[in-house]
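pinned: reference chain
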Amino acid sequence: MDTVRVGIRIEGVVQGVYYRYATQQKAEALGVNGWVRNRADGSVECLAEGEREAVEALIRWCHQGPPGARVEKVTTQEEEYRGDLKEFSIR
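pinned: its structure tokens
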């Protein structure tokens, strides 16, 4: 099994549009563990861990997000897989 851990940062109109909730729902549907939170600068930050295909599907979804979001930029940073995330939470 090819597993990955990826930090994701989403910029644009992504706060106040249920982005974190929708991300949690999508991650859970894909079987991805991790967390999502708002940042003080108006962006959203996410840490996703799981099977590569599922994490990549979540990243693709992040480029659009929920209705109402206007995503301008998504950046990712692959990290060392740890396997210590057991669910997907909103922080």
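why pinned: The two ends are 28 Å apart (CA to CA). The longest strand covers residues 3-13.
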